[in-house]
């Protein structure tokens, strides 16, 4: 099969070549990939650490080529969206059936390929906050893939959404169009306490966001884009200012269970036009280096989608 292979002598460390077809386990379906979407964590970190010739990739949408031998999961011919630790950047991938969501017929598989990491992370992190109706929710790094989905889903869940972005003047209108009620530059600029935080940035912004939590509130640390440590001032965790019982929750998507229903639900919302996938770049996988460079250069505010042609 053809695949994007790790090759550090090639532009952006990727070249289109040939790799062995995957051999599915009994609980895995074989999926023919139609489109994949890049995530910063893959391109910015995994690609630098992977062995030469490796096939990486978390997100892919396509059609089931061969159903799982154990009878689980969708039948052959079903359009699907898939998540796995690797293998998305190839014509074929073997995927655990509990990480496969079904897709409505006729849906744009390129748009659907943005769902797994970005959409499912946003959905599961919001679930961790609990009921959203009537609550104030802060989303940091809101112009990224996860952040954009989180803004939309939080608004649809009935939350009052406050979003942060590095350039509120340039990006505020786009975030408000997605559902944000307020757009600010940093968590420190938030004027009232919030009941929950989804943090995509880490470092100083996570510390500032925690300071904005009301009593009983939760911060979910979803992303770590800043690449900086978190240093809390002495006394931050005392809880003696009337805002006790605040918590910080770590997050890892592949540590979640029963993701197939979530992927199916999200794919349906994309197909129905109820969620904007936020595609900032789309092209052939032969242009993978261009997409990777744009992502690494922070020139994309949203998702990069590669169609397999």
TrEMBL record:
Residue span of region Disordered: 1-24
SUPFAM superfamilies xref list: GroES-like, NAD(P)-binding Rossmann-fold domains
Highest taxon listed in the record's lineage: Bacteria
Keywords: NADP
Domain Enoyl reductase (ER): 9-306
InterPro entries named in the record: ADH-like_C (IPR013149), ADH-like_N (IPR013154), ER (IPR020843), GroES-like_sf (IPR011032), NAD(P)-bd_dom_sf (IPR036291), Zinc-ADH_QOR/CCCR (IPR051603)
SMART domains: PKS_ER (SM00829)
Protein name: Zinc-binding dehydrogenase
């Amino acid at each position: 099969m053809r695949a994007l292979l790790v090759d550090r002598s090639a532009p952006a460390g990727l070249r289109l070549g040939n790799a062995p077809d995957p051999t599915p386990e009994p609980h895995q379906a074989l999926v023919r990939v139609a489109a994949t979407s890049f995530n910063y964590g893959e391109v910015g970190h995994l690609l630098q650490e992977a062995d030469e010739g490796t096939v990486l990739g978390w997100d892919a949408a396509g059609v089931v080529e061969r159903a799982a031998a154990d009878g689980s999961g969708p039948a052959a011919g079903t359009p699907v969206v898939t998540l796995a630790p690797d293998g998305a950047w190839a014509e074929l991938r073997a995927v655990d059936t509990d990480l496969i969501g079904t897709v409505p017929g006729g849906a744009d598989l390129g748009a659907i390929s943005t769902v797994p990491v970005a959409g499912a992370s946003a959905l599961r992190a919001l679930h961790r906050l609990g009921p959203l109706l009537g609550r104030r929710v802060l989303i940091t790094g809101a112009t990224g893939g996860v952040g954009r989905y989180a803004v939309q889903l939080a608004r649809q869940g009935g939350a009052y959404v406050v979003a942060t972005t590095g350039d509120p003047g340039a990006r505020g209108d786009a975030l408000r169009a997605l559902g944000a009620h307020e757009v600010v530059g940093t968590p420190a600029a938030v004027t009232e306490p919030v009941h929950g935080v989804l943090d995509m940035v880490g470092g100083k912004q996570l510390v500032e966001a925690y300071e904005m939590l009301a009593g009983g509130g939760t911060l979910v640390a979803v992303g770590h884009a800043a690449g900086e440590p978190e240093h809390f001032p002495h006394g931050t965790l005392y809880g003696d200012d009337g805002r006790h019982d605040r918590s910080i929750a770590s997050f890892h998507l592949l540590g979640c269970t029963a993701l197939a229903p979530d992927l199916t639900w999200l794919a349906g919302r994309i197909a129905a036009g109820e969620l904007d996938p936020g595609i900032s770049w789309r092209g052939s996988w032969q242009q993978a280096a261009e997409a990777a460079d744009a992502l690494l250069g922070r020139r994309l505010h949203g998702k990069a989608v590669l169609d397999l042609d």
